[in-house]
Design brief:
This protein is an alpha/beta fold and 756 residues long. The chain has 4 domains: 8-312, Rossmann fold (3-Layer(aba) Sandwich), CATH 3.40.50; 315-576, Spore Coat Polysaccharide Biosynthesis Protein SpsA, Chain A, CATH 3.90.550.10; 577-642, no CATH class; 655-750, Jelly Rolls (Sandwich), CATH 2.60.120.10. Helices cover 30% and strands 28% of the residues. The protein contains 21 helices and 43 strands. The strands form 12 sheets. The chain has a 6-stranded parallel sheet with strand order 2-1-3-4-5-10, sandwiched between helices. A 6-stranded antiparallel sheet has the order 33-34-35-42-37-40. A 5-stranded mixed β-barrel has the order 21-24-22-23-25. The longest helix is centred in the N-terminal third of the chain and has 21 residues, at 78-98. It is globular, with a radius of gyration of 30 Å. The model is unreliable at 70-74 and 309-316 (pLDDT under 50).
């Protein structure tokens, strides 16, 4: 038995398991607990660990530190998972033995057991057959740790034990959208879907695997119990002995969170091990059993997700960044419109094809700061395009209607605090979604975030070093030429001669980039708007005054500083600047003869465009229209586009895309492309019939509750009122003919998907 005053070291005390063990020890009256943060003690550095143990001489050690993650993380970082965990555990166990530690408890994972082990899995099945490949590296590291404990016992008579928990959940979990385990990932996704009004959530696999889940505080209770009541070379399983399918778990999490939308399944993603249930008879025979039922534990976990300050603190220096993506980009007509704005046009060459502005910016942010929390503030019309191009992991704060930048930033700031759990004193960076920059720009944003976090000013701006006397930008006049300087004044967009005078004074372009502590903008929002929280602000959004962030906040703030940025920066707001970033003269079917100079063609039509003898011209062709313009003149396009009333002919959706092929008085013909693993909402139309002809791919349709497999050549007819949807197994292309006197996007009624 451990004495209440015994020196106890908990390795990994800030993690989910370690923090639970600390809580349990404190609850039971142990008062001499030693902890170290990673910054204070890097467990992967042998000399540091040896020094720590030699100085502190802990009598008991709970080894709960580890590098953990879900299926994606384990597949992407095999070597990292193996090296980190093996190095850490060997350092701690070896140093504990060298310094006379009375007892050590090693925390493993049920993933160490063979993929096809007999169910429920007994402790004795370890190493009897092949491991699950999706987490093999992590499993091998954990097996090494528990075997080292066993071998020390056998060779030197130590009393080192190991515990193998089942799938854990609870306070201080990691809620990363792809690098977390199933329960926290589901909690986050359903919460964000609920808050954003997302109609469906797609989950990995088919929902069939069986899993067991243990609340982490129950595990901590067992860990302390075993430290006092168990000795032996064989590990002890920690679980409930109860299992459910991932589908059942998913539905239960949705219920706890309060999400009422549709749940879809992406069978192209891995399921992992078919079944994992532990035999817990050994722990039961020792006199221990779990206390927390799954639904009760999930409610406690959801409360933690919403409120736990430790979870927020563990993000460290990762950026909280808001990307403003509200505009329609009419200066880039005809490729840009209210639904497919300029940031979604795929023009930037990559190894695999082309990427859009939003894809490029998001990729660059993650390359600079992999843990950055990205939220896109956007309009309802752009949500589908965002999810189509970036997936569902990116945060989206949806404006109910357009109200300029101050209301948009206020709403996004409230979203970060109330939905994503960002603390009041955490730094937030805001920038446009469409700059053409190198990665050093986002490295500078990280520095700007750190400046804001220091609190020397209420607002921290990024000023762009001018390269010419531009008339397109406002100017920031700093007080000094230092890298970071207080702001002297702001100047509106000048003429070229005035701009030269500003630049001579050391002026910087205002690139619309600023950072602040979340509390600052939230307080400003409450000063100017009467609201209680994010939901209340969302509900009142349509009544808000249209005003820019510059007018509402920036120009009225005295404690404001600017950081200089001298790297590449281009505003992609016109055809002239956009074509400067193109690596090749044409995209799509186009031919340019040798006499063409500085000519760029972007052609989305399935017909060739031929250019001859042109100079400084941009040609853009899409189903929405054709532009032929001198590049300089193209910046004056907006008033002409405002007078054009053209039906949207192409749009990206969360499930794929559609293109309008033909419009008649009582019919419309559309080509639909669904990406594999995705499907439409289950819906009906009251005022039109539809006929679908499958031209390629495979999938299945549901018509009035009846499932039907579909393939190339199949024809489906849906009369008005028929409830229908379609899902793609492979890329699925369909020609849809709409027939009726009143064809409208408003003629759509959505329904829950019928259960199989």
């Amino acid at each position: 038995m451990m004495d209440k005053n015994a020196k106890i070291y908990v390795a990994g005390h800030r993690g989910m398991v370690g923090s639970a063990i600390v809580r349990e020890l404190q609850r039971q009256g142990y008062n001499n607990i030693i902890t170290r943060t990673h910054k204070e003690l890097d467990l992967c550095r042998q000399e540091n660990v040896e020094k720590f143990f030699a100085e502190e001489k802990p009598e008991y050690v709970f080894l709960a530190a580890a590098k953990v993650g879900g299926i994606v993380a384990n597949q992407e970082a095999l070597a990292d998972f193996m090296w980190f965990n093996m190095t850490l555990e060997m350092n701690v166990i070896h140093s504990a033995w060298q310094n006379g530690c009375k007892k050590l408890e090693f925390l493993g994972s049920s993933c160490i057991y063979p993929r096809m082990a007999p169910q429920p899995m007994k402790e004795s099945c370890l190493l009897t057959s092949e491991l699950e490949k999706t987490n093999e590296a992590y499993a091998l590291a954990k097996i090494s740790g528990l075997k080292y404990c066993e071998f020390l016992n056998r060779q030197y008579g130590t009393d080192y034990i190991s515990v193998m928990p089942t799938n854990l959940y609870g306070p201080n979990d990691n809620y990363h959208p792809t690098h977390s385990h199933v329960v926290p990932a589901l909690i986050r996704r359903f919460h964000e879907a609920k808050v954003n009004g997302v109609e469906s959530v797609t989950c990995w696999g088919d929902g069939s695997p069986l899993r067991e889940f243990l609340y982490v505080d129950d595990l901590a209770n067992l860990c302390v119990f075993l430290m006092n009541h168990y000795s032996g070379n064989e590990t002890v399983n920690a679980g409930t002995g109860k299992e459910l399918t991932i589908k059942e778990l998913t539905e239960l999490v949705a219920k706890v969170v309060g999400y009422t939308g549709k749940i879809e399944w992406d069978a192209s993603k891995p399921n992992g091990t078919p079944r994992k249930l532990l035999d817990v008879s050994k722990a039961t025979n020792l006199g221990w059993t779990y206390k927390t039922e799954l639904e009760d534990g999930l409610r406690l976990s959801y409360e933690d997700f919403l409120n736990n300050p430790m979870r927020r603190a563990l993000k460290g220096n990762a950026m909280n960044i808001i990307l403003l993506s509200g505009g329609s980009g009419k200066r880039l007509w005809p490729l840009s419109n209210d639904i497919r704005s300029k940031q979604f046009i795929k023009i930037f060459k990559t190894a695999d094809g082309y990427e859009s502005m939003v894809q490029r910016v998001y990729r660059q942010i993650k390359e600079v700061d992999a843990d950055a929390s990205v939220t896109i503030a956007t309009s309802k019309t752009q949500v589908s395009s965002i999810h189509n191009q970036l997936g569902n992991s990116v945060g989206v704060c949806v404006e109910p209607c357009r109200r300029d930048t101050f209301p948009a930033i206020a709403l996004a700031t409230a979203y970060l605090h109330d939905v994503k759990g960002v603390g009041l004193d955490e730094a937030v960076v805001v920038c446009p979604v469409d700059p053409y920059v190198n990665n050093d720009y986002f490295a500078a944003l990280k520095t700007l975030s750190e400046l804001a976090g220091q609190g020397n000013a209420n607002l921290s701006l990024m000023g762009i070093e001018p390269t010419y006397p531009s008339e397109k930008y406002g100017y920031i006049i700093p007080q000094s030429a230092d890298a970071v300087s207080p702001v002297k004044t702001f100047k509106e967009k000048p003429d070229a001669a005035t701009a030269e005078k500003y630049i001579a004074q050391g002026a910087l372009w205002n690139g619309g980039v600023f950072a602040y502590k979340l509390r600052y903008v939230l307080d400003k929002a409450h000063e100017l708007i009467d609201f209680t929280d994010y939901k209340d602000l969302f509900d009142k959004y349509e009544t808000l005054k249209k005003i820019s962030f510059d007018y509402a906040v920036v120009e009225n703030e005295s404690q404001i500083q600017v950081m200089r940025f001298a790297g590449q920066w281009k505003d992609m707001g016109t055809w002239n600047t956009l074509t400067e970033a193109m690596e090749e003269p044409s995209i799509g079917k186009a031919m340019l003869n040798d006499t063409c100079q500085n000519v760029h063609v972007l052609n989305e039509l399935d017909v060739p465009v031929l250019c001859m003898g042109l100079k400084d011209v941009v040609v853009s062709a899409s189903p929405e229209g054709i532009l032929v313009s001198d590049k300089e003149q193209s910046s004056y396009i907006k008033p002409y586009v405002d007078s054009i009333h053209q039906q949207i002919m192409f749009a990206e959706k969360s499930w794929g895309s559609f293109r309008v092929l033909d419009v008649e008085d009582a019919s419309m013909t559309i080509k639909i492309t669904l990406t594999p693993g995705h499907g439409m909402n289950y819906h009906s139309h009251e005022n039109r019939d539809e006929v679908w002809t499958v031209i390629s791919g495979t999938g299945h349709a549901i018509l009035d509750g009846v499932r039907r497999d579909v393939k190339a050549g199949d024809i489906l007819t849906m009369p008005a009122g028929c409830r229908h949807t379609v899902f793609a197994d492979s890329e699925l292309k369909i020609i849809e003919v709409q027939l009726g006197p009143a064809i409208s996007v408003e003629d759509k009624q959505k329904y829950p998907l019928p259960q199989a």
